[in-house]
Amino acid sequence: VNVRPKFLPESWYGYDSVKLLIMRAAALRELRERQFRALTRWIKQGGYLVTTAGLNYGSLLEKRIQHILPINVFGHKRLFELKSLTSFCSQPLISDRPFLVLNVRIDHSNLLAKEKDIPLIIQKNLGFGQIIFLSFDYSTPPFSRWDGRRFFWDKILTIRPLVDDPEWAGKLAEA
User: Fold this and answer.
1) To 5 degrees, how large is the angle CA 40–CA 29–CA 38?
2) How far is CA 24 from CA 68, 72, 92, 136, 163, in A?
3) Is 33 left (phi over 0), alpha (psi -120 to 50) or beta?
4) In this structure, which of 12, 59, 73, 103 has its CB flanked by the most CB atoms within 10 Å?
5) C-alpha distances in Å from residue 168, one per residue of 13, 44, 163
C-alpha cells in the first residue's frame, strides 16, 4: 500500500496491521509531531521501518530523526557494483553506469551488508523494533531496475522483529 505521509496515523495502534513501513527520511521529516511520536512508539513496540535518504541526506540531520537514528554522514561514494548483496540476498547488483551510495555510520547498530568499507544495510534496534537504513536509493536505478529486488525485499522481511503482543511490548517500552 502506498500512503502519503500526511495520511499516516497519529496513534501507535494505527500501525497495528503494518508488517513493514518503507519511508524516505525526507518523508519522516514531513510528519507532524503527533505522527512522528506515534511512529516512534510503534517502532519501539516491535515495528519495522526501512528508510534511506537518497542523494539529499539533509533530512537525516534533523534533531528528532537523529534521536531515533543517530547517523553520521561522510559523503557519497561512486560505485558500479554491490557484489556484497550476494551474501545478503543471493543476488549481486551490477551496473554499467555509476551510482551513488552514502558513506554513513550509525551509533550502536549492526552492519548487515557492506561493499568494501561502505556500509550498505544497517540495522538499528529501537526498543523491541528496528530501523533498517539503506545507504543506496531503492527508488532509482540501478536498484529500481535490478532483477534481484524481489530477493532483496524478501530477505528484508525475514529479519523483521517478531513481537506477539504489541500492547505488552508497549507497556515494557513505556517503562
Assistant:
1) 25
2) 14, 17, 23, 11, 24
3) alpha
4) 12
5) 13, 12, 9
Strands 129-134 and 48-52: parallel
End-to-end Cα separation, the chain, in angstroms: 33
**C-alpha dist (Å) from residue 52 to 2, 15, 108, 148, 174:** 16, 20, 18, 18, 27
Each residue's pLDDT tens digit, 41-81: 999 999 999 999 877 788 899 999 999 999 999 999 999 99
Burial group, residue 10, by CB count within 10 angstroms (0-12, 13-18, 19+): middle
Q: What is the pLDDT of residues 112-127, one digit of tens each?
A: 999 989 999 999 999 9
Q: Name residue 122's amino acid.
A: I
Q: Give bridge partners of residue 23 from the DSSP assignment.
A: none
Q: What amino acid is encoded at 107 in this protein?
A: D
Q: E strand or H helix at 81, and its extent? A: strand 71-82
Q: pTM for the full model?
A: 0.90
Cell numbers found for residue 94? 551490477
